[in-house]
From TrEMBL, chain A:
<dbReference type="InterPro" id="IPR029069">
    <property type="entry name" value="HotDog_dom_sf"/>
</dbReference>
<dbReference type="Pfam" id="PF03061">
    <property type="entry name" value="4HBT"/>
</dbReference>
<dbReference type="GO" id="GO:0016790">
    <property type="term" value="F:thiolester hydrolase activity"/>
</dbReference>
<feature type="domain" description="Thioesterase">
    <location>
        <begin position="61"/>
        <end position="130"/>
    </location>
</feature>
<dbReference type="InterPro" id="IPR006683">
    <property type="entry name" value="Thioestr_dom"/>
</dbReference>
<protein>
    <submittedName>
        <fullName>PaaI family thioesterase</fullName>
    </submittedName>
</protein>
From TrEMBL, chain B:
<keyword id="KW-0378">Hydrolase</keyword>
<dbReference type="InterPro" id="IPR029069">
    <property type="entry name" value="HotDog_dom_sf"/>
</dbReference>
<feature type="domain" description="Thioesterase">
    <location>
        <begin position="52"/>
        <end position="127"/>
    </location>
</feature>
<protein>
    <submittedName>
        <fullName>PaaI family thioesterase</fullName>
    </submittedName>
</protein>
<dbReference type="Pfam" id="PF03061">
    <property type="entry name" value="4HBT"/>
</dbReference>
<dbReference type="InterPro" id="IPR003736">
    <property type="entry name" value="PAAI_dom"/>
</dbReference>
<dbReference type="GO" id="GO:0005829">
    <property type="term" value="C:cytosol"/>
</dbReference>
<dbReference type="InterPro" id="IPR006683">
    <property type="entry name" value="Thioestr_dom"/>
</dbReference>
<dbReference type="GO" id="GO:0061522">
    <property type="term" value="F:1,4-dihydroxy-2-naphthoyl-CoA thioesterase activity"/>
</dbReference>
Length: 150, 158
């Protein structure tokens, strides 16, 4: 499986297409996350999906899905940019909800603020209408293994 | 039928949350002390295909819901309480093929804000998989989307 994962990661790097890689992660398929490379940056998208709704009356996305989406974005961002052999392990995750997540597509971008030998600090911003009006911001620490840049 | 009206309210509330239905989250226990939900193990919530460990996101959904629903335990009437912030500290990975329990309680209720904390565990509550703190905003009963959900919780017809 490890070998399989690494091969798909290498292929994803090469073609800038991350679908095959995301297909290996069941939770990513469940919520429906997508990833595109734009220049040297990664843009994540969570298409509107009825199964991700929390409050059915508004309707609004479940806060846990927004959190899960952002957490997964951070792990994938690290995976792609550090060349780690597997998904990095999460240590803690802290998020601020700024606006209700409406029933529409959600986008996210990540920024690695510090990458030490063992721990990385990543911030994640998620938005729907415009990046200037985020629906949530988050920060996560991950434990990372041996770093070998691709 | 059970004689615990809080448990009944909690069960109705969770049945209205689509994503919780998708994850199969159910109410295990509810009292004035707090609430415990259960997230069953399922291959579809696996985050690490190499180990079969569930993704933190599913755990976050469990704990966000548990903390949010803990407000039901302290408020006399249903109010919509959106999450202001949430923090999860992961103690160790959840063991595959076992359910995860999520307990949450309110430790301070003010006119505007409710402070909650909780933990997720599997076999032993003394060995939590994760610790959580969450802050929720009280919006009162008149917020858009509150009435329909409120009547679901109290068991009235909308």
């Amino acid at each position: 499986m490890t070998h399989h994962f690494k091969t798909r990661l290498e292929q994803a790097h090469e073609h800038g297409n991350y679908k095959a890689l995301l297909d290996l992660i069941p939770y990513a398929k469940l919520i429906g996350i997508e990833c595109t490379r734009i220049g040297d940056e990664l843009l994540f998208r969570l298409p509107a999906n009825k199964d991700n709704i929390g409050n059915p009356i508004l309707p609004a996305l479940h806060g846990g899905v927004i959190a899960g989406f952002m957490e997964l974005c951070a792990a994938l961002h690290l995976l792609v940019f550090t060349g780690a052999p597997g998904l990095p392990k999460i240590i803690d995750f802290s998020l601020d909800y700024l606006r209700a997540g409406q029933f529409r597509d959600t986008y996210a971008k990540c920024q690695v603020w510090r990458q030490g030998r063992r721990v990385a600090n990543v911030s994640i911003t998620a938005w729907q209408s415009t990046a200037a009006e985020p629906i949530a911001t988050a920060r996560a620490h991950f434990k990372i293994g041996e770093v070998s840049r691709p | 039928m059970t004689e615990n009206p809080l448990l009944e309210r909690a069960k109705r509330f969770i049945s209205a949350l689509r994503h919780c239905q998708v994850l199969g989250i159910t109410v295990h226990q509810a009292s004035e002390e707090g609430i415990t939900l259960v997230l069953p193990y399922s291959p579809m919530i696996v985050g690490d295909p190499q180990t079969g460990v569930i993704h933190g996101g599913a755990l976050t959904s469990l704990m966000d819901t548990a903390c949010g629903m803990a407000t039901l335990c302290v408020l006399p009437e249903f109010e919509v309480c959106p999450t202001l912030d949430l923090r999860i500290d992961y103690m160790h990975p959840a063991e595959p093929h076992k359910p995860v329990y999520g307990f949450a309680q309110c430790y301070r209720v003010t006119a505007d804000v409710i402070f909650t904390r909780g933990f997720a565990y599997q076999d032993d509550p003394q060995q939590p998989v994760a610790h959580t703190v969450g802050t929720f905003m009280r919006m009162g009963k008149r917020l858009k989307g509150a009435q329909g959900l409120g009547s679901t919780v109290t068991g009235e017809q909308v």
